[in-house]
Amino acid sequence: MKNIKIFDTTLRDGEQSPGCSMNIYEKIEMAKQLERLGVDIIEAGFAIASKGDFKSVNAIAKNVSTPIVASLARALPKDIDCAWEAVKDAKRPRIHTFIATSPIHMKYKLKKTPEEVIEDAVNMVKYAKKYCEDIEFSAEDATRSNPLFLAEIFEKVIKAGATVINIPDTVGYTTPDEYYNFLTRIKENTPSIHKIDISVHCHNDLGLAVANSIAAMRAGATQIECTVNGIGERAGNAALEEIVMAINTRKDILKYGTGINTKEIMKTSRLLTNITGVEVQPNKAIVGENAFAHESGIHQHGVLEERSTYEIMTPESVGLNTNKMVLGKHSGRHAFIDRLKTLGYELSDNEVKEAFEEFKKLADKKKNVYDGDIEAIVSKRVTHIPNVYELHKFVTNSGNTITSTASVTLNFEDKNIGDISDGDGPIDAAFKAIEKIVNTKATLEDYNLHSVTEGKDAQGEAIVKLKKNENIFTGRGISTDVVEASIKAYINAVNKLVYEERN
Ligand SMILES: CC(=O)SCCNC(=O)CCNC(=O)[C@H](O)C(C)(C)COP(=O)(O)OP(=O)(O)OC[C@H]1O[C@@H](n2cnc3c(N)ncnc32)[C@H](O)[C@@H]1OP(=O)(O)O
Ligand SMILES: CC(C)C(=O)C(=O)O
Question: Locate the Pyruvate carboxyltransferase domain: which residues (predicted)?
Fold first, then answer.
């Protein structure tokens, strides 16, 4: 199995993402985590960019021991001097120098002829080689460059001392087949390239960065440049976690290995998110919130029977404790029963049927149904008090310039009985209207309302305590509407009182 070197550029190209700047302490923490993750090379920054960048690269060079530590440098002596000063304390330092090779970049940006670019590249590799054994040379915008021109420049910089040749897709322009053929053509025309590492560095402008990196690996690339969470200039770089897990998961067709400890992936992703404050999208492969979540009944049933039905890798393999069954309106009976068991409820078939119907009704109103919602549905069911009174409908009217009123209709022995009342707020008015209907002569001893679940669409649980002849009757009501929850709680307490008086 061929080993692929993982070159992490989260701290250099990743930091070029708007909003992803990190301070020196954050960069050191991130670099240490990258070391635990097992990356082969950390590109710690672009030393000449600022004093802060220089200090960060230097601090990382002093603080990590296993990975190679690289600094980027233009093909300019001052950049190379600065890069060397920053990385020279590393156990394994690397200078990474680059120059653009596409006609468009040479003409408009560098304002140099191809011959001048070759001369600068060769001279600067030789210059860097005086400092450092390990020199990476990148041909910026390689995929829009002439492959025969690249072959010429690569052959010359390898002879000048380059130990790694990087062929970047700087603007995320290529496609997997094209990149494969492009690299093959360069290899065929660069005799010395076979003795050194071939690297690729893909951007995600067309969403092809990972696919292109994998195609490049199949064409003979031995080093892949990537970033955690795929952050980077514009649409970002190839995502480290996606490349590594593609290699790990498709060993049947990708006969490669990496030194990455995949169990550190999630921790690394979250550390970066915490440092930058830039969240990954929920559906992001491998590290997104939903990457191991199942919501639909058919999938949940499959996963409960055998995880591999819908999971091509285990959450544990990337450092997540478990997958996630999200209960919502697409969920089915199997997942619901499984959650009831996890929560410790053993219900009869009929109770499960009723609870499931109620759960589906609730799921139509709420985006996610949480464990608290389910407990609320089920605990109501296990009290077994007959519902003598049931809520049929209610209307309340309130505001800070009017007296609150409520009109409530209850179902009692197959008849609807309604009444109205005013009160101090809609809940007080509703309670008074109910009392007019049920006429229990009980007093309201206590009332409490709280949220039982999370989120904007959380359910409110109301607790009502009615007192009659020194006996307290406690009622509970749950709803996404707090007035409805309160009315239901009042009626529940009334039903308990009536049950007690009748038995
Ligand atoms: C594809 C990539 O990701 S490349 C890395 C991109 N990252 C960054 O640019 C982040 C760090 N950059 C910086 O802090 C600054 O751009 C610096 C310090 C490097 C340079 O700043 P300035 O001197 O103000 O130049 P500025 O950024 O405006 O322009 C770039 C200059 O570098 C030249 N240049 C660009 N690439 C190279 C190269 N590989 N080799 C030599 N010169 C280069 C340009 O022609 C231009 O030269 P000019 O000033 O003579 O016209
Ligand atoms: C400097 C090189 C490697 C780069 O970042 C790019 O081409 O995108």
Answer: 4-266
CB-defined site of ligand 2, < 6 Å: 13, 98, 138, 140, 166, 168, 170, 201, 203
User: What HEC string does 325-352 produce?
Assistant: ECECCCCCHHHHHHHHHHCCCCCCHHHH
Last residue of a domain, one of 350, 381, 412: 381
Task: Give the domain extent around 370.
Answer: 293-381
Number of structural domains (the chain) is 3
Determine, yes or no, domain membership for 263. yes
| pLDDT tens digits, one per residue of 298-333 | 999 999 999 999 999 999 999 998 888 899 999 999
- Residue-wise pLDDT for 362-390, tens only, equals 999 887 788 878 888 887 665 556 789 99
Q: Is residue 284 part of a domain?
A: no
Nearest CA to ligand 2 atom 7: 170
Q: What is the pTM of this model?
A: 0.80
- Regarding whether 492 and 394 lie in a shared domain, the answer is yes
- Note the ligand closest to the C-alpha atom of 43: 2
In our burial notation (b when 16+ CB lie closer than 10 A, e otherwise), range 398-422 reads beeeeebbbbbbbebeeeeeebebe
Examine the domain organization and report whether 299 and 405 are in the same domain.
no
Centre of ligand 1 from the C-alpha of residue 76, in Å:
10
